Amino acid sequence: MCCMSATLCAQGTTAGVYAVDESPIVVPKPAARNVAGGTLINVNYVGSGINDTFKGAFERACKIWEENIPTTLPIKLNVTIGRTTDPWFRDQSCLAYVNTMASENGYGDKVEEKRIVCLSGTYDQDEMSMAYIRDDADATITFCPRVTNRGLFSYELESNECDPGKYDFVTVALQAICKAVGFVFKGRVADGQLVPLEMANTYTRKICVDHDLGEVTSGNLSIEARHPSNGKHYVLPIYSPTVFDNKFSLGYFAKDQDNVETAFMQPGVAKGSVIRYIGETIQGFFCLCNWHFGVATGVGGSTYVDGSSTSDVIAYQGQNSMSGKSQAPLQEIPYDEQGDVADYISSHMESAGGGRSVLMGDGTWKAFSSYGELSTAANYARTSDGYLRIKEVTLQPSIGGQYYNRFVN
């Protein structure tokens, strides 16, 4: 008898990343850009045929995404190269296939459940295990073996040029990761209506509740969202062709080659296209999915969480000398690798006491007092430019007191 793991049994709806025969576009990574939150993406490479070049390009895509995901527990991705016999690669245009894992506890996607747990700090103590919340994959991304084996992927990291006969791997990976974190329509059209699947995510449920089939096939569907703390208003132009397209409808932003803010997630990837920028519009998507609410502290407290910009970087200030002794390392939060779920969740949460914290390579926040305490040898998380991820928390207790959290690169 074959026994499948809980992760495999909990597979959710899938989505593909597809090639399109269109003119290539190039959107470089701007030197000055906003950075949001403190989420890390951990990758488990499965199977053969994955070399260091492949890994380096995929992890560059992860770094770009980490700058744009509001704080949640570390996201775990399985990445593999599939087989030519896999059913999803019967479509010759499929470059990658994304299988998001369904929550075992009724939250839709497992990634969505992680955000709720990280936000509230509450979970079902009888059901939540370390294996589930930390170790098991949240999604599996499978790349097309036909494209990989024929050398049709270009693995450039920072170059804005791509062989016109190849697909830029980082650009394909950016779309796949976007599907993994929830930008996928988990529904279908039946009897002239939109019907969410049983374990549909928040994005799908909002589409199905707020819009009918006529609207989502109007050719110009726009969805509005507002940031809960800073009030910023977003308009999301959603791809909504007049004939419902199972590949692309509702799972991408509308086609518009002049819109660099949505270019990374417009339908399909053309040969020669290179995209290294995730536009501000994605923050509207996260707001729509209730993924940008800050953390209130205390009764009657309210929240303000501000991002940071790579144009405002604090220069490295060197290490303190401590009476001739070597620099003491930052204090690690006591943590049982085998199973303290509460410690794991609390060490990754966005809220904290007043002061400064630096994001570590394992996704936890570590407090420090002065920048001189930071060690050049420590395993810190970094932006795609190599900057540290630091947050400054200011508590102003009063009636209606504020919780300020500013992330600094």
Number of helices: 10
Largest sheet report:
5 strands, mixed
Mean pLDDT: 81
What's the order of the H and E elements? HEEEEHEEHHEHEEHEEHHEEEHEEHEEEE
Task: State the distance separating the first and last CA atoms.
Answer: 52 Å
Shape: globular
- Radius of gyration of CA atoms, rounded to a whole number: 21 Å
Low-confidence region ranges: 1-13, 294-303, 319-335
The largest beta-sheet arranges its strands as 1-6-7-5-4
SS content category? alpha/beta
Strand content: 15-25%
Number of β-strand runs: 20
Helix content: 10-25%
Protein architecture, described:
The chain is α/β, with parallel strands linked by helices and 409 residues long. 20% of the residues lie in helices and 22% in strands. Helix 2 crosses helix 6. The protein is globular and about 55 Å long. The N terminus is likely disordered.
List the helices and strands and how they pair.
Elements: H1 6-9, E1 11-18, E2 26-27, E3 34-35, E4 41-46, H2 52-66, E5 75-81, E6 94-101, H3 110-120, H4 130-135, E7 139-143, H5 145-149, E8 153-154, E9 167-168, H6 169-180, E10 187-190, E11 193-196, H7 202-210, H8 213-216, E12 222-226, E13 233-237, E14 274-275, H9 281-288, E15 302-306, E16 308-309, H10 341-346, E17 355-359, E18 365-368, E19 390-396, E20 402-408
Parallel strand pairs: 2-14, 4-5, 5-7, 8-9, 15-20
Antiparallel strand pairs: 1-6, 3-16, 6-7, 10-11, 12-13, 17-18, 17-19, 19-20
Helix pairs in contact: 2-6
